[in-house]
Prior knowledge:
The complex is a heterodimer. By secondary structure, chain A is an all-alpha fold.
Amino acid sequence: MSLLALVLVPLAGALLAGLDPSRARRLAWLGSAATAHLLLLALAWGGALERSETLWLRFDPLGGLVLTLVSVVFLAVAASSVFYLRREVPRGGRAYEACLLGFLASASVVCLTDHFGALWVAMETTTLATAPLIYHPSDRRSIEAVWKYLLICSVGIALALLGTFLLALAQGTVPGSPDLLRSTILAAPRLDPVWFKAAFVFLFVGYGTKAGLAPMHTWLPDAHGEAPSPISALLSGALINLAFLAILRVVQVANAAGQERALAPVLIGFGLGSVLVATALLLRQRDYKRMLAYSSVEQMGVVSIGCGLGMAASYGALLHLLGSSLGKALLFLVAGNVLVAYRSKRIDDVSGLIERVPASGALLLAGFFLLAGAPPFPLFWSELAILRGAFLGGQPWVAAALVALQAVAFVGVGVRIVSMVQGAAPGGEVPRGRESLWLLLPPAGLLLVALLVGLVPAVQSVLLAAAATIGGTAP
Amino acid sequence: MIPLSEAVLVLVLLVNFAVLAASRLTFTIRATAIQGVLLGILPLTIGDPWSGKSLLLSGGTLALKAIVLPNVLLWAMREAAVRREVEPSLGPIASVGAGVLSVGLAQALSRNLPPLDAALPRLLVTASIATVLSGFIVLMTRRKAMTQVVGYLMLENGVYLFGLILAGRVPLLVELGVLLDLLVGVFIMGLVVFHMNRELESLDSARLSELRD
């Protein structure tokens, strides 16, 4: 079996689900394709799937890590969709499951392909597959959100295509070579520095738009805030990481070409800018889903800073990417539970979670501690590694700015989360103890995975191997 | 005599100006259709015209950019009864002025880039960058959602022109994937515009302002 199975299984699931008139069977297709994808990935980690020439697929630690993260988040999203679909007609209507699985298939291509052109095509496909899931044709706010999402991401991605062509030019003019853009990493020492710098600028701005880095992040809070909660979890836990993976692929090429020093200021600058903008706007939010969305921008900024610092911080950046994505997907799923119980997205309308929906309240607190970097969770280690990288790299001011901004964000989010969890519950229709298992198991599962990421030694060694390809060293 | 490819590129630049100066929405959509025809001819004037790949690409580009996409947009306009004025926030004269500036900038940039294959038309890089910039001008200064789609199409056309520098060296699968993504993307945009108009009674994306901080 080849790696192509990781693309074909969700694709086949999408076709079957798209054609099936029965909702129960469509859900079964969704669940089984998501499970099969995760199992196939386990085989791929064991080295049982060989590379495929059709879409230039190969398995490396960096792509494998991100795809595993996507697959885990996807399974949680699929499971929580069971409850969502029971309550309302899903966005995308009958195509809901097909769109989700189409996203998973293109995510596999994004993570595994060796070819920057195929990466681009698959990346744009993830935008197109998720747009119908955000979009409700008769809800003004969702139309506005989906419009911004489609237009801003498509324009950003068009710039990334320009960057992809520039990268091909940087590779030199070998006439008639069909392998253009392929295995760029191997050919990297021959890259033309002028064309490569131009390529990096366009690729960074283009994919950075989709990764939600400020100032190109403007679509993100709207799309995350307006989408149904399982979809918000998917956007935040999977989609924006795929875009950041594309940036990491360029960083890989730069490292192989010995030109990584030129990229560091861009990564650190945009990273710090994102943390700053996100922290400032986070404090002004009255809507808890939008608050979480800005926290995604902030986390992406931290990851970008870590990659820019390099060395010990690269390992931290990858660990941060994993931990914060799991935490964010968890929190968006729990936010969906809160929305079900309180029917309001306003922070002021929610109080006494621990009394009204105790399990969701506890999960919300746990998710907050996960993101805040409390010790058993991976974000504690990742933040330490990034700060260490900043000091060792001779840039202590980056560490100082990061600590200060994150402290402000911590207090800002903490105060709001605590006000939601504690206090007296307002009178309402949903009585105590009526929390569906479908609403609790997916976020609880994500919490468990996040704990394991920080504790299992095998994960550490894979992370180190992946970090080594983007200029990282052991912390 | 001017080579055919250079002449086509001059026409591409002229279409940019036509869109920047236009006041009728249907006219801008038809103008992008004409630009699509020009882009479809261009691969045949560069390199080997009768290879299967360049014929396929040329045919795909013509079908998509000259016929399908403009018709999707015209359909959405008709069905959603969009008013026909462009309603720019930057007037036609200022827009054309910005267009002239973008051509100048593109020319300056293309002269400073490392030299390319001598067989390529000299205007290619200039026309590409100028079209990308014109697309940006339309995106930034037109408030109607439909006109923004036109701007996005122009931007894509500029990127496509740049891709011609690599003619034949990007795998067919990727080229077709790019076209397919564009098709689906514009189709969904057309659909959203249709619903947007039904909900908001006008396609003014400036009135989409409920979500802000």
